[in-house]
Amino acid sequence: TVLSEKPTTFTITVTSEAGENDETVQTTLKFTYREKYPDETPLYEIVSQENLNDNDVMDIIKLLEQQAEENLGMVMIFTLVSAVQEKLNEIVDQIKTRREEEKKQKEREAEEEEKQRFHGTPVTIENFLNWKAKFDAELLEIKRKKMKEEEQAGKNKLSGKQLFEMDHNLDTSDIQFLEE
């Protein structure tokens, strides 16, 4: 877009190729020719950017500076825009690489967590003996409870002899059953 004729000022919007998920980075460059252009570098600035961080913007400015110095004496706008285009494509690739690295890092962390979850206490003689003492104490307590329950249940139950001694009707009931 041409902004003015004297001095010649225009903007060019440069967009990267689409990366993963159709992500792009974009910047709008503003160029102003100086009187002695191309023997003198044009004035340039980044008017706007999209999906770029400050470090990327600084890298693009340094790239423009370097390319302008290398191309003094030649028409250079196409070269500058092409260099920025390549840089934007590199940035998209770096974003993709960063995301892949983050994904791999998360997978590694999840795997480490999983390993930690299944990694128990190493067994040594001391901790085994401590566990064994606790386990034996628990078993002993369970046996004591069972014995108490059996004793309490046993107090209420009468033996067969005691039943016959208490209830004489039981004496005759078996005999009648046998006779029938």
UniProtKB/TrEMBL annotation:
UniProt keyword list: Acetylation, Phosphoprotein
Similarity comment text for this entry: Belongs to the RWDD1/GIR2 family.
Protein name (record): RWD domain-containing protein 1
Its biological purpose: Protects DRG2 from proteolytic degradation.
GO terms under cellular component: cytoplasm
PANTHER family: RWD DOMAIN-CONTAINING PROTEIN (PTHR12292)
Classification via SUPFAM superfamilies: UBC-like
CDD domains: RWD_RWDD1 (cd23816)
Entries under PROSITE patterns matching the protein: RWD
Superkingdom per UniProt: Eukaryota
Region annotation (Disordered) ranges: 99-118
Gene this protein is translated from: Rwdd1
UniProt xrefs under InterPro entries: GIR2-like, RWD_dom, UBQ-conjugating_enzyme/RWD, ZC3H15/TMA46_C
Basic and acidic residues: bias regions: 99-117
The keyword Phosphoprotein appears for this protein: yes
Domain RWD: 1-91
